[in-house]
Design goal:
Layout (H helix, E strand, L loop, with lengths): L4 E7 L8 H10 L2 E7 L9 H8 L22 E7 L1 H9 L5 H12 L3 E5 L3 H4 L2 H12 L3 E2 L10 H9 L1
Parallel strand pairs: 1-2, 1-3, 3-4, 4-5
């Protein structure tokens, strides 16, 4: 019996987040046990009930409370942030953990879990010096970045291939 790999999928507030159920299905077909974590804006782009039904687990959006001894998530074998927004990239690189999503991303990097960032943002934001600098910071921390300036977000097929590659 093959061991199941656990994939955390972090969704930020960008249009591609609405396509997440398709990606979750593809990832599951490829052998991943998927858990979805959303930023406060990301949850507005998601069909939370559909994702919970697909994954068998609630979409995580908040920090756990003091009386909760577990975050309810199995340990991750890999993580993907798709779509990753300007805001999340910048806060993550700076270690600003004001959301559960960014806090978990900071922890995953510290734990050595492979993380793939797939930005989706306007060209004007992609050309901002802070964004370019922070992508380099994330890369220096071991985060793999799937992004080409001026191009649309990488396809979900490319994201899945990058996870396995």
């Amino acid at each position: 019996m093959a061991l199941v790999k656990v994939l955390y999928v972090f969704a930020c507030g960008a249009p591609a987040a609405s396509e997440l159920p398709d990606f979750v299905g593809r990832a599951q077909h490829a052998g991943w046990d998927v858990r979805v974590i959303a930023t406060p804006m990301g949850v507005n782009f998601l069909d939370v009930e559909r994702l919970a039904a697909l994954t068998g687990a609630p979409v995580r959006t908040d920090f756990r409370l003091p009386h909760e001894t577990s975050n309810g998530l199995p340990p991750a074998d890999a993580a993907v942030v798709a779509p990753a927004t300007f805001n999340t990239i910048n806060k993550w690189a700076l270690g600003i953990t004001d959301t559960v999503a960014v806090g978990m991303l900071c922890e995953l990097v510290g734990m050595g879990v492979p993380v793939l960032a797939v930005p989706q943002l306007k060209a004007e934001l992609a050309s901002h010096p802070a964004f370019k600098t922070h992508l380099d910071v994330l890369r220096s921390m071991g985060v793999r970045v799937l992004f080409e300036a001026g191009a649309p977000m990488a396809s979900w097929g490319d994201v899945l291939a990058a996870l396995d590659g």
